[in-house]
Each structure stands twice: as C-alpha cells, then as structure tokens.
Amino acid sequence: MQFTKMHGIGNDYVYVDCVRSPLPADPAALSRAVSDRHFGIGSDGLILICKSDAADARMRMFNADGSESEMCGNGLRCVAKFVYDHAIARKSHLKIETGRGVLSVDLEVKNDRVSRVTVNMGPPILKSADIPTTLQSDPPVNAQLTIGGTQFQATCVSMGNPHAVLYVGEEYFRTGERDLVAEVGPKVEHAPEFPRRINAHFVKVHSPNEVTMRTWERGSGITLACGTGACAVCVAGVLTGHTARKLLAHLPGGDLELDWSEADGCVYMTGPATEVFSGEWPE
C-alpha cells in the first residue's frame, strides 16, 4: 500500500490515495498499526482520500486508537494539498466531503505546490444535544465541570466533532515531570457529561486577539495541534468574552489564524500543510 506522511503544524497523519487505489480492508486496524511511533510509521491517525459524488474528494479520518472521527481541520488542509499537488483536482478552490458535510477550501499555491490553506469550517454547533453534552445551559458556556475533584468552567462547541474549552493557568503549559494536560485531558475526554467523548483544550489568553492552547485529542492523546479545536477556541472566546472574532492561536506545532465571521456565521481557519515523505506499507 502506497502512503504519504503529511502534517498540519505537527498534527501528523498517514494519508492513503483511495481515489486511485482500493480502500483498505480494515481501516481501524490499519490506523492503529501505522500510527504506532515505535513499530509503525508514527502518526496521530490515518486519513483516507476517497472519491466523492458531491465534491472533489472525500476525507475519512481514523484516530490512533482506530476510532473513526467526523472531522480534522489540520487533516483537511493536508487533504486539500494532496488533492492539488497529486493532480486529483488542479483547482485553487476545492470542495472536500467530510463527516461535517461538504466544506469549501481555498489554496495558496507557490512554485506549483500548495503552501497554505483556508478552510470554511461552517458555523459552530452550539446546541448541547448536538455537541453532544449533558452539561447544564444551552449553549454550554462557562458550565460547571468537575474533574477529579477540581472545578472547571467548560465551554463546549462542535465543529462537526465535539470540543470542551477550558481557560486555565500557566501550570498547564509546563511539561516537566508533571504534565497537567496529560493528567486532566483523558479525564475530560471520558467524563460522563460527554456521551461520545470529547476533545479537551486548555487555553491561556494573551490579548483579545491572541491565545496559546494545548490539546488532549479524543482517541489520540496529546497532539501538537488541532484545527477544529482552534476553531472551537475562537468561538468559545467570543461566547465567554475572553477574545474577539479574529484570533491568532499558538499551538505547540505552530500557529493558526481563525475568524468567526459576523457576516455569515462561519469559522474560517488558515494555516500551512506540509508533505513529509512517501513510502510503501507492507500489506
């Protein structure tokens, strides 16, 4: 099986061209195998680029634990780059089918290769039952969440996949012997208030237009970046009054530019997409 390793600011996946090649027989098992950073290729998961009757291509995304997820913003940017660079569709404006529906993508092309991608991620989903969460208040803004005896105020947003945004102190950004994101993140992911589990984001505000964030990603653990999570942080910042509609988010793997447009209610995400290497995985 031919594969390509790509990343969006460090959020790395193994990509398989299923437009020109057959679908893997067991994508969940394949994702677990290729994601292993000691015995596999090493990644946050597996993304299949498939044919679509409704768009230029369809994206299917599997986490490192084999679970299939609805969306991945960083992965979507890389899918768009692959579709253009590998001549599936040579257009600067693409439509990609995802678990969230068909999303519009604009490409910045330099030297005949895509360097940056802007994705219209659509409007945020804010109804508790649709996120889903059982936290009180609808939308769930600054809702009380108890994790391991500690009280948090959680703001929950779905961007086609569920996110909990927690505004925290400096201690969550230290990664020495004790890493609070590694401790608290899995407890948030599996909290009973989130029936389909959830992505947890720990956020420090610098100004109305700038934040730093770290992520515990559902099914993958700590990742260097989460594009849909950064979109959720942008929306949560507006809902809680922490930040403005245009936001620069610093993630461990790099920066993303977000804009929750007042004109159409959609969230726009801009960032790089990088191809690392290609290879052959034994069947």
Describe what this molecule looks like in 3D:
This protein is an alpha+beta fold. The chain folds into 2 domains: 2-107 and 272-280, Diaminopimelate Epimerase, Chain A, domain 1 (Roll), CATH 3.10.310.10; 128-265, Diaminopimelate Epimerase, Chain A, domain 1, CATH 3.10.310.10. Helices cover 16% and strands 42% of the residues. The protein contains 4 helices and 18 strands.
Tags for this model:
42% strand; alpha+beta; 283 residues; Diaminopimelate Epimerase, Chain A, domain 1; single chain; 4 helices; 18-stranded mixed sheet
Summary?
16% of the residues lie in helices and 42% in strands.
Question: Topology of this protein?
Answer:
Blueprint: E1 2-8, E2 11-17, H1 27-35, E3 45-50, E4 57-63, E5 68-69, H2 73-85, E6 93-98, E7 101-110, E8 113-120, E9 143-147, E10 150-158, E11 162-167, H3 180-189, E12 199-207, E13 210-217, E14 221-223, H4 227-240, E15 246-251, E16 254-260, E17 267-272, E18 274-280
Parallel strand pairs: 2-3, 4-6, 11-12, 13-15
Antiparallel strand pairs: 1-2, 1-18, 3-4, 4-5, 6-7, 7-8, 8-17, 9-10, 10-11, 12-13, 13-14, 15-16, 16-17
